Fold this sequence. Notes:
Shape of chain A: globular
Structural class of chain A: alpha/beta
Largest sheet of chain B: none
Strand order of the largest sheet of chain A: 1-14-13-17-15-16
Oligomer: heterodimer
Number of strands of chain A: 17
CATH class of the domain at 124-281 in chain A: Alpha Beta
Helix content of chain B: 55-70%
Distance between the termini of chain B: 49 Å
Radius of gyration of chain B: 20 Å
CATH architecture of chain B: Orthogonal Bundle
CATH topology of chain B: Ammonium transporter fold
Number of domains of chain B: 1
CATH topology of the domain at 124-281 in chain A: Rossmann fold
Amino acid sequence: MDFKLLTFKGGIYPPHNKSATEKKPIKDAKEGKQVIIPMQQHAGAPCKPLVSKGDYVKVGQRIGEPDGFVSAPVHSSVSGTVTSVGPMLHPAGQRVMSVVIEPDGLNAIDEGIAPKGDIDTLSPNDIKSIIQESGIVGLGGGVFPTHVKLSPPEGKKIDAIILNGAECEPYLTADHRLMLERPEDVVYGLRAMLRATGVKRGYIGIENNKKDAIERIRKCIKDSPNIELKVLKTKYPQGAEKQLIYAITKRVVPSGGLPMDVGVIVNNVGTAAAIAEAIKTGMPLIQRIVTVAGDGVKEPQNLRVKLGTTFKDVINQCGGMVGDVGKIIMGGPMMGIAQYDLNVPVIKCTSGILVLSRQSASLPEQGPCIRCGKCITVCPVNLMPLLISQYILDDNFEQAEKHHALDCIECGSCSYICPAKRPLLQSIRVAKGVIMANKKKCN
Amino acid sequence: MNKLIVSSSPHILSKNSIQRIMLDVIIALMPALVAAIIFFGHRALVITIVSVAAAVLTEAVLQKLCKKPVTVNDLSAVVSGILIAFNLPVSVPLWMPVVGSVFAMALVKFVFGGLGHNFMNPALAARALLTVSWPARMAGAVWTQPGNIDVIGIATPLELLKAGENLPGIYDLFMGNVAGCLGETSALALLIGGIYLLLRGVINWRTPVTFIGSVALISWIFGVNPLYSILAGGLMLGALFMATDYATAPVTPKGQLIMGVGCGVITTFIRLFGGYPEGVSYSILFMNVMTPLIDKFTMPKKFGGVKTHA
């Protein structure tokens, strides 16, 4: 056992299930007969559509105008004709204003797309505005606009930027393949972020189950003394922001606080590569790598998918579904969102599409809590899920809040480990909603 | 393509189950059962079977009568049945394990809400009931000499210790070739089971180590051979299998340490200064009722926060 591996307290060891895709090179997916581009693919204010029905759009053309600073523009991923602008089903479950485009197959690129220069000649503000204009958001799943993260308020001193290459979710290998195939872009993106913020120190954290990626990245940074590779223990949720910061810097982000409160900015490796692409080619964020996996898909693989391509089109390019499919998830199996309709688009946070057979997706019967305390042992934020859940079942949200329900990071470790199969996280999630709603009412 | 399952994450769950945990406990108790049969004869097995049957039947009948789902498949009643038998001397009449099991399952477990909701260890509550109701049948005076087919009254090591008489050797104590309840005499067999539970992650080290450690330390302070106080009586069984009972012991890491130390202190003080030769069962029962308080005051400090009491 390697005792030098960095990690956090708690956590679980679910089966990795990465072998089906981790050795296969990323392939380009084709867009379908229509692409659906939602105006909300980021944390913050939704965009306003800039096009209307009948308009011709090109690849990289801005079609959604951000509303305010905490927002990110949306671009067309194809060239073609806008067939409708209106609410469409979004993988998060609700209907969201979307631009639907019928691609013409030419993929004509917008005239404005041109290389932006080199990070050493660009000023910090230039880099930030390229990132902002390119609609780059946190591709790990948080989809927080990256330019906002890179603009900490006055008085917050940042001394480290961490790239998150943990990819601790089972099944997902998109970040792994990216680090293998384009390590120089990952490092380039990190260097751009360092320059944009004036921060001296960069870290790249990777779980030790990705030895080949670790080697590639190590080679890429050997001439960058200010960037350090940190090998992390393979444990879920190693990639959770606060747990990652703790593992690498031993700093504890205060409850309710942000990474910048301890002088750190965390970004996903995919985000870094998107920044590199935006600077090198001028192409905004119009595609991402998606892991398509699970026992219900014929040919699991990683695809580079144009945003807006429907799940159905993506799955069909992986040989389609096999057997009795019981569940389709956007993201990983621990934190992903179950879908009920496959006509939803791949969006900026779609790190994976998991197709699970009915057998592996079936929900077990729950038993009584036997107070084994395993949920307490695995909780990365030291909560007592069994107790909070009990209060919630008694409709006692006040006590649930007193026991720090709002600190829950929704990693799902408690539900995973529970021998009685109790929906611990699920109940806490309900409580968080109720507590937040009550707070709003009081204000 | 229809009828997709839609549920809130996580979408994968571990293979853990209540049944598997209970099965692990049963497996862990098997070496002690074998030791009991070797040292006390086949009657040890008969008592155990009767006790398990009574426990399972009681639970099933009560659940049926109250129109609740019958959950004997979770094997928790089997564990209780075995532990009740392990707390009886081999000489007891067969109605005693029945009385103990019915009492434990009905009045200690079922009426408080079943699995996970009892506030006292059912097996120890049964032992306490039987000890106060039929002290003569439960006392060491009629406990059998292990390996002897004739029932000969002989004192347990702790009774001998209390009376200041000649003690059996450490080797016999460790192997279990001494007088005592069915499941408590062989420290070796219990340790094998305990290590199995530790390796399987069913129990953790906190309560057993602090319990046994504090008994050894306090005994040594008061001039009793610590090895002797660890190996004699019900300490191994109690520390490994009863003080670690999920439902009735603290769930917090710090609480589990307090549980162990509390049990150790009370056990040793009863043994040294109390009226009974053995204090393991009462110490655990006492700490059982303290458990909600212990849990309340030992909540782990949340990540990134200051400790607060709820």
